[in-house]
């Protein structure tokens, strides 16, 4: 076994020429990872297993109970065996110790002459270290060779066959779609028997190893190694790990190629979002993508969160979107418009839970697309959820409306649903119907002019005072000013807006006008120009 020696092999070495296995002979093929010299009686918690122990017996030779406890601890710790030097401290081995070792097939080796423990440990450790180095070299060569093969391999079975050539164990590949591959091939009537055997020995790492194949946080299958002829080693596990990594790269490459093909469909999708496709055409398109029974959906827009954000790898991003949102029950289609990734999410599950599932998907997505300070690289907006595929253009344009509002007014917000932007949607609609600027100035012009003339903060104070429902203490705390300063500002507001500005109806209109002012002021310089004109008059 690579990286370890068996006790049988060690017994053939020079220093063991005059050694005798006096008990536990059935365990002579046990593997040795390391050699320790031990002269204390409490040892169980200090061992990791498969150590060969050397001892003179100085701590237990004349105490049968301590001797028995010492051997029992070694057995419990899964040590490979015990070598005792016959001499001053241990002249004979009690029969009860021999019986204990035989019962557990624990090799007990007796040196009939004095030996050098230093030379023994140097000898065996040099062999083990050389084998370990050889194992690492072989593993590196295997990984390099496997990476080269990835350039020409067309199916996962070829990768697994290459693994089988190196370790010889039975390989079982369970794919996500329920397909199961056996390498080497197993007769059909024995396949169920073998799979059943795996479930029974699932926790026995000596016979069975398994590892899932993960690509972008999605599991695409599980690889099993099974060996009934020899115990599986750490080397086998490392070989399996390298192979699973290569399989994940192979699958990712395939997904990448497929994603690029899908992006080529974007022209048709743009036409759909512009309302240029009939329901029959949409159905025909979806039938080619196993989504023919879908009737509802929503559009999500994704773009960079600012000019200083690194460029996004669109193909990788679409793979990530697909991996996340397919698990949330959506079919996912992409196109790119106006430097923005447009994502069509078609719902396969309960329409009543669509929003919760989209929120969960967005949370997962943002957690993978942020810098070390937690700042997200993405800005996302979600349009109106529509019942009818021919209405997808409505979801698309409302997603753009949500993106516009988010960028202009919602500082620090990088994900917004159109249906949650209640008052901003109303303002946007009203602005499209008529010019709201004069209406805003009718209520707020005295405050705006005063702030510009005196570099004041009356408008900010008014906004906070209204949001605090007229609580002077809370307003002062939020503005970080003393109560007397707030009283002075409120008096000034009363003189400019009227003493009744906190009466219900007038207060409601003023609060709404502040939001309209902020909305309009974020899109043009009208107020700055108009108030300058007023002052000049």
UniProtKB/TrEMBL annotation:
Limits of the Purine catabolism PurC-like domain: 9-127
Gene3D superfamilies, A to Z: PucR C-terminal helix-turn-helix domain
Top-level taxon in the UniProt lineage: Bacteria
Domain PucR C-terminal helix-turn-helix: from-to ranges: 458-513
Protein name: Purine catabolism regulator
Lineage, uppermost ranks: Bacteria, Bacillati, Bacillota, Bacilli, Bacillales
């Amino acid at each position: 076994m690579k990286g370890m020696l068996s006790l049988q092999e060690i017994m053939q070495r020079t220093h063991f020429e005059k050694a005798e296995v006096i008990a536990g002979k059935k365990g002579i093929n046990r593997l040795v990872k390391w050699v320790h010299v031990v002269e204390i009686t409490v040892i169980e918690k200090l061992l990791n297993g498969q150590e060969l122990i050397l001892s003179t017996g100085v701590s237990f030779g004349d105490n049968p109970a301590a001797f028995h406890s010492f051997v029992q601890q070694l057995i419990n710790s899964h040590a490979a065996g015990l070598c005792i030097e016959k001499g001053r401290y241990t002249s004979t081995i009690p029969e009860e110790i021999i019986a204990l070792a035989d019962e557990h097939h624990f090799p007990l080796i007796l040196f009939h002459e004095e030996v050098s423990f230093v030379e023994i440990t140097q000898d065996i450790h040099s062999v083990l270290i050389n084998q370990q180095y050889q194992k690492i070299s072989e593993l590196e060569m295997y990984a390099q060779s496997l990476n080269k093969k990835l350039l020409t391999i067309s199916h996962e079975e070829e990768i697994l066959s290459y693994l089988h050539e190196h370790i010889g164990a039975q390989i079982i590949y369970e794919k996500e779609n329920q397909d199961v591959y056996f390498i080497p091939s197993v007769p059909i009537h024995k396949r169920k028997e073998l799979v059943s055997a795996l479930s029974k020995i699932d926790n026995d790492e000596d016979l069975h190893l398994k590892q899932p194949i993960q690509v972008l946080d999605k599991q695409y299958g599980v690889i099993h190694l099974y060996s009934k002829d020899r115990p599986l080693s750490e080397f086998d596990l490392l070989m399996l790990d390298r192979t699973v990594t290569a399989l994940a790269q192979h699958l990712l490459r395939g997904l990448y190629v497929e994603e690029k093909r899908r992006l080529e469909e974007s022209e048709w999708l743009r036409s759909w979002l512009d309302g240029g496709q009939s329901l029959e055409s949409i159905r025909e398109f979806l039938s080619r993508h196993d989504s023919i029974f879908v009737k509802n959906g929503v559009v999500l827009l994704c773009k960079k969160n600012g000019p200083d954000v690194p460029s996004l790898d669109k193909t990788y991003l679409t793979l990530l979107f697909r991996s996340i949102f397919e698990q949330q029950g959506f079919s996912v289609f992409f196109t790119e418009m106006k430097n923005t990734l447009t994502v069509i999410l078609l719902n396969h599950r309960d329409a009543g839970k669509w929003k919760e599932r989209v929120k969960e998907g967005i949370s997962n997505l943002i957690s993978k697309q942020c810098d070390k300070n937690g700042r997200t690289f993405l800005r996302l907006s979600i349009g109106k959820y529509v019942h009818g595929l021919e209405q997808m253009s409505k979801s698309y344009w409302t997603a753009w409306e949500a993106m516009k509002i988010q960028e202009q007014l919602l500082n620090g917000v990088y994900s917004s649903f159109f249906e949650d932007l209640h008052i901003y949607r109303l303002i946007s609609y009203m602005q499209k119907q008529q010019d709201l600027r004069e209406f805003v100035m009718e209520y707020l012009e005295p405050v705006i002019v005063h702030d510009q003339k005196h570099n004041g903060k009356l408008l900010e104070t008014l906004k906070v005072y209204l949001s605090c429902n007229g609580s002077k203490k809370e307003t002062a705390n939020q503005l970080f000013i003393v109560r007397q300063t707030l009283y002075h500002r409120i008096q000034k507001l009363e003189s400019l807006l009227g003493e009744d500005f906190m009466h219900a109806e007038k207060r409601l209109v003023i609060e709404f006008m502040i939001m309209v002012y902020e909305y309009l002021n974020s899109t043009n310089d009208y107020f700055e120009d108009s108030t300058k004109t007023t002052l000049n008059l």
